[in-house]
Amino acid sequence: MCHFAVYEQCDAAECLKMILHQISPQASELLRGQLRDTTKCSKGHIINAQTNPFRTLPLSLKDTPDTTCSVEKVIQRTFWTKALIGNNKLHCNKCQQKTKATTECELVDSPQILILHLKRFDFDYNTRSHFKSHRCVEVPCELQLKNKTYKLYGMVNHMGSIRGGHYTATVLSEDNTWYECDDAYVSKVEEQPFATSRTFSSKTVYLLMYKALQGCHYSRYDQGGANDLNLLSLNDNHGTTYSEESSLKKAANTKSCSGDHKVSCDEKIKTTSSSAKKMITEHKVELINCLSADHSYILQHAHAKQIITDRQYQNIKEKSPSTPQETVTDLIDHVILKTGPESWTAFLEVLKLPDVLSTYPRLKEIINEMLRSNSGCNVWHLKQGDHM
């Protein structure tokens, strides 16, 4: 797992991801939602279907024609059905050929606390370079998503360029007043957001934190869980802003599970994550040799699935000199050493995608060996339809 230090240049989204790995399982459940990705051929056969958890919802700002875009429209575009035609056709096992297909993402379960990650830092495949989007984004005070109404209570802003900058946080207090947190300085925002409109326009907002107006019952959590929620709110009941260092220490030292629930919860997480990590580690050499046949393809998939962050993707891709084997080695090392349990299992899920299996013919053999050597492991398995 990555480690951050105060005063070092770090990405706020990466730091948030690390904090979320440290909080208690009960508090983590408040941020947990589920997305279902479904790919179907033109005849309606399901090529691939996956349901995966998320704790931050990434929103791309690319491919938006307008200078200004709204959060609501970006969310709608995220859940549009997309057509896969031409060179993007996929192989359908039932049709026994490559065919036109559609892919769609569906929000299955919405969390009580919704964190939106506006992907201002992205990669342009045409110019093969990274860039920062300075697009103006209209942020709503309230957001309707699935069966919940959310109210904005925190924003993280980035001022600067792709090569460096400065982060601040804008936080809503209990008296419904917005405050700006800039390093050690906290001050009331002069022009209060949403004072005259339900939306607020910003060219710097990077992370948005919403909480559900109904159904969010914090009382069922003990003191430890409540402390973790204070951490996510960026301030305690007295309005004192935590430094990044003290926040990380507080999250790491919080104990919130108790009794039998703590044992069952911890053991389940430990078993699942250690099994996934073991499968990757034990077959690391075989995976490197296999995936090196097209190192850019697997790297792009890992990036698209949020297994590695934008910064990690950039570091691996721009590392020079670098052979295909070194690139894949760096990718697997990032997955194993510098990310958490969700990324380990997500990486295994990527390996079983139909287009990935067809790109790397030897991958099926490695997968079967994984399954034989880890028999009885419930972390990951190929569906019957994935075998050829």
Q: Can you give a write-up of this model?
A:
The protein has 388 residues and is of the alpha+beta class. The chain folds into two domains: 12-256, Alpha-Beta Complex (Cathepsin B, Chain A); 261-386, no CATH class. Helix content is 36%, strand content 29%. It has helices at 12-22, 25-30, 71-78, 223-232, 244-253, 259-282, 284-291, 295-304, 310-318, 324-337, 341-351, 354-359, 363-373; strands at 33-41, 46-54, 57-60, 68-70, 82-84, 90-92, 97-99, 101-109, 113-119, 121-124, 129-132, 136-140, 142-145, 148-161, 164-172, 178-182, 185-188, 199-202, 205-212. The strands form five sheets. Strands 3, 9, 13, 14, 15, 16, 17 and 19 form an eight-stranded mixed sheet that branches. A four-stranded antiparallel sheet has the order 2-1-8-5, with no helix packed on it. Strands 4-12-18 form a three-stranded mixed sheet. Strand 10 (121-124) and strand 11 form a beta hairpin. Helix 9 packs antiparallel against helix 10. The longest helix has 24 residues, at 259-282. The two termini are 36 Å apart. Residues 215-271 and 376-388 have low confidence and may be disordered.
SSE arrangement:
Elements: H1 12-22, H2 25-30, E1 33-41, E2 46-54, E3 57-60, E4 68-70, H3 71-78, E5 82-84, E6 90-92, E7 97-99, E8 101-109, E9 113-119, E10 121-124, E11 129-132, E12 136-140, E13 142-145, E14 148-161, E15 164-172, E16 178-182, E17 185-188, E18 199-202, E19 205-212, H4 223-232, H5 244-253, H6 259-282, H7 284-291, H8 295-304, H9 310-318, H10 324-337, H11 341-351, H12 354-359, H13 363-373
Parallel strand pairs: 3-9, 4-12
Antiparallel strand pairs: 1-2, 1-8, 5-8, 6-7, 9-19, 10-11, 12-18, 13-14, 14-15, 14-19, 15-16, 16-17
Helix pairs in contact: 6-11, 7-10, 8-10, 9-10
